[in-house]
Amino acid sequence: MRVLITGAGGFVGKNLVVRLQELEAFEPIAFGRGDDVDGLREQVRRVDAIVHLAGVNRPADEAMFSAANAELTCLLCEMIRAEGREVPFLFASSIQAECDNPYGRSKRAGERHVTALADEGNPTIIYRLPNIFGKWCRPNYNSVVATFCHNIATGLPIRIDDPDAEVRLVYIDDVVSEFVTALRETAKGLEWRSIEPEYATTVGTIAERIRAFARSRETLVSEPVGVGFDRALYATFISYLPTDSFAYGLPKHADPRGVFVEVLKTRDTGQFSYFTAGPGVTRGGHYHHTKTEKFLVLRGNARFRFRNIQTDEHVELHASGDCPMIVETIPGWSHDITNVGTEEMVVMLWANEIFDRERPDTVASRVA
């Protein structure tokens, strides 16, 4: 399917073009700002569907609202009629169409042109889009998320006039996925569709979450960014990191036994670390009452020893980087780990809680 995308150089357009290029079933045809409108008719003649994203929302001259939002939409509808065939048409309107302002009125005018085309049987879908956030959105323009992400990522101040101001948001990947789905299942006439999920939040909450993402690089305490709004917002935040911030250092604790480095901490699912040990070096020699740990030898050969502090029962295990295996520590069992190989040993460690110096739950106790 050859898909004409107007506004292809904009925030949504860039993301949609990339997604369609990834899919064998689609070939995106780009029309962007600066392209010749006279050539638009030939592009319409060559395509199987149109996603109309082009428009303006903050022009220097209010007259541009009508020209870019209403008149271009009207022109596209006329070109489709002239083709004498059905050309599925997806129109990106805005929730501002519900408002009585120049931008909202221009979007409503565009909706009327699209509705008239649909009344003639052309497959047509209208989206009244709320604020969209995600990678490649222009900061310091009309997106609070893009502005906050860019400024906080680069160490610039942000301005909040009303932290309780409500914001309706949808994520760019969800927008693009909906457009791809719609292109595959258009039907005759008009359909109004929306983007799901939609997130309702406040300006203050957005700022607080993004600041927490930035702090996590210093505290090593990761925010819960695996699902939902926080997942999308975190991906957006790191997409604004300058190239010299793609990496950040970690504190390293060294002693004659080797090094110990904390990598990542979570508030409720523990922390990740790694340590090294030279040949013949033993680490550990303690037990825990409640804390649990998982060890994974990444390089070298290790001997794990356990002793039940009540029964004096002993257990010995061997692990190596050649055969991945998790070794768990058990509450009430003293344990240690010895490098029994000839090279430096590297071991990854997960503990189920962040280390608390005031309550370490670590009691020295020799294993043998």
Name the features.
single chain, 368 residues, alpha/beta, Rossmann fold, Jelly Rolls, 2 domains, 7-stranded mixed β-sheet, 6-stranded parallel β-sheet, 8 helices, 30% helix
Description:
This protein has helices at residues 11-22, 40-46, 63-83, 102-119, 144-153, 172-184, 203-219, 228-239; strands at residues 2-6, 27-31, 49-52, 89-94, 124-129, 131-133, 166-171, 190-193, 199-202, 221-222, 252-255, 258-266, 271-277, 282-287, 293-299, 301-308, 314-320, 326-329, 333-339, 345-351, 363-364. With 368 residues, the protein is α/β, with parallel strands linked by helices. The protein folds into 2 domains: 2-130 and 167-199, NAD(P)-binding Rossmann-like Domain (Rossmann fold), CATH 3.40.50; 252-364, Sandwich (Jelly Rolls), CATH 2.60.120.10. The strands form 4 sheets. Strands 10, 11, 12, 13, 15, 18 and 20 form a 7-stranded mixed sheet that branches.
